[in-house]
Design a protein that fits this description.
The protein is α/β, with parallel strands linked by helices. It has one domain: NAD(P)-binding Rossmann-like Domain (Rossmann fold, 3-Layer(aba) Sandwich), CATH 3.40.50.720. The chain contains nine helices and nine strands. It has a seven-stranded parallel sheet with strand order 3-2-1-4-5-6-9, with helices on both faces. The protein has a two-stranded parallel ribbon with strand order 7-8. The chain is globular, with a radius of gyration of 18 Å. The chain binds NADP nicotinamide-adenine-dinucleotide phosphate (NAP). NADP nicotinamide-adenine-dinucleotide phosphate (NAP) binds next to helix 1, strand 7 and helix 6.
Length: 256
């Protein structure tokens, strides 16, 4: 059976990946901070899908935890076929704050952890001549809504660079750029999303099914649903001055 390692696999998009991959016959390794949550989700997945689930309590903002997870990815005795770098959180904070710990954690969890885990997975997979790395970035990468956009833009460019470096090795690399998905993300991050119209929301299972389809097709960047694919294409081609204006309007609407 193939094995997938998912960071943040207990809730939200990561949990939807866990269920979809379990359904497709993957054994799983789940890594996030909430040990009780990991145990609960692992037990449910074992019972429902009859798969093996390993849990690794991990804080991706702690370098030792990230290095331990990287070592698990490179363990030749227990190969990982698919790495889903999913863990992350909303950063809705001014760039002027004196206490920059949230920004620092965002860079640790959504940039540095990707670099370290992606590198470890890439080395192991390249040596075997097969495997896949899926990084969950964001459609925010094409606009300029604070440090979150900056972090996700980094993650998107990093993903494309890794895909370039691994081209022809048998290892696929894909960045998933979701629009708004109903998970704990907005409440946890204090992002007001209640005034958004229904049509902007993507169903989490539809998102994951689209992402796995695109990964199988060999896409490097995936934006599931036509609406969001259109929005991201517009984001890519619009003048930066328009992008900055749109970003100011979006940030303001979340503050109201
Ligand atoms: N929801 C959206 O609208 C949306 C849109 C675009 C992109 N995304 C991206 O999608 C990914 C998943 O978000 P989501 O919507 O599923 O949010 P979520 O429901 O809040 O889940 C976030 C997951 O990340 C884990 N996590 C957060 N900080 C961590 C840390 N320091 N160490 C280890 N795990 C950590 C959490 O687990 P613990 O708290 O147990 O550690 C949780 O499992 C994120 O990268 C997010 O930026 C989300």
């Amino acid at each position: 059976m193939p094995t997938a390692l998912i960071t943040g696999g207990t809730v939200g998009i990561g949990h939807a990946f866990a269920k979809a991959l379990a359904e497709r016959g993957y054994d799983l390794v789940l890594a996030s901070r909430d040990e009780a949550g990991l145990q609960h989700v692992a037990a449910a997945l074992r019972t429902t899908y009859g798969i093996e689930v390993e849990i690794i309590p991990t804080d991706l903002a702690v370098r030792a935890d990230v290095l331990a997870l990287a070592a698990r990815l490179e363990d030749p005795e227990r190969p990982i076929d698919l790495l889903v770098n999913n863990a992350g959180f909303a950063v809705h904070q001014s760039l002027l704050v004196k206490d920059f710990s949230v920004h620092e954690r965002a860079i640790d969890v959504m940039c540095l952890a990707l670099l370290i885990l992606g590198g470890a997975a890439a080395r192991a997979m390249k040596a075997r001549g097969e495997g896949a790395i899926l990084n969950v970035t964001s459609s925010s990468a094409v606009i300029t809504t604070g440090n979150y956009s900056a972090v996700k833009a980094w993650a998107t460019v990093y993903t494309e660079a890794l895909a370039n470096e691994l081209r022809g090795t048998g290892v696929r690399v894909m960045g998933l750029m979701p629009g708004w998905v109903k998970t704990e993300f907005h409440t946890r991050g204090g992002v007001k999303a209640h005034n958004l119209p229904d049509f902007v929301w993507i169903d989490v299972d539809q998102l994951v099914a689209g992402a796995l389809r695109d990964l199988a097709r060999g896409k490097v960047l995936s934006v599931p649903t036509r609406r969001w694919a259109f929005a991201v294409t517009v984001g890519h081609i619009m003048p930066r001055v328009t992008s900055r204006w749109l970003s100011r309007a979006l940030t303001k609407s979340r503050d109201e």
